Amino acid sequence: MSTATVPAARQPTMSPVSKFGATHSLRRLPVQERSAARVRRMLDAAADLIEEVGYDRLSTTAIAQRADVAIGSVYQFFGDKRSLAEALSQRYIDLYFERLAARFDAEPPADWQGGVEAAIAEYVHMYRTAPGFRVLHLADAIDPGRADAVTTGGDVIADQILAGLAQRFGIGGDDELNKTVTVAVETGQALVRLAFRRDPEGCAASIAEANGVVCDYLARRLP
User: Fold this and answer.
1) In 3D, which of 166, 142, 158, 92 has the Cα closest to residue 122?
2) Digit-coded pLDDT (tens) for 164-200
3) Could you give the residue ranges of the DSSP H alpha helices within the chain?
4) pLDDT tens track for 10-62
5) Which residues bind DNA (predicted)?
6) 3-class SS at 137?
């Protein structure tokens, strides 16, 4: 992955992760390691370019050039730049939960409030270290093919948090809890975005406010 234009303090942390993103974003899964390496390079290149020029100016041609692959290789696995961005968003979600699970395993939170603080802290870490993350911010649709609803990164995060609440704290899921956690996730995402609009490294007061707002909201609704 080219990191020449990414400041040292924001070097990517996802390169060793052998995730390709959501399978629905790939035209086909790479079978051989050589093909898998090409897909990883394309996603890394897309991350760098989104960081540098934004999503609107991103092109598959630029991705191919940065990844040092033929343009045909891009279309072999991805239909367009949107599917690349979707796969990158899913890879970031995978990495986010890998980091969060490792954090919980190393220092289990005493209660769900501690879990919220850890979840927001890891989300902030992604903003600071993963190229393109603050541009994608996982808010756009990552599964537009679903007939019943449009799934966003926030929805995927909420689903995994619900599973974690059941596993770690014995809090069972129902429709009302699903709605509550989804609102909490979307609120937390919005407040973290605000923190990074106020300060490129993340306004500490705004991040603290994100923790407070989300915890206060959940405290009024969790059993």
Assistant:
1) 92
2) 777 777 776 678 888 898 899 999 999 999 999 999 9
3) 33-53, 60-67, 71-77, 81-106, 112-129, 133-136, 153-169, 175-198, 204-219
4) 333 333 334 444 444 665 666 678 888 999 999 999 999 999 999 899 999 99
5) 59-78
6) coil
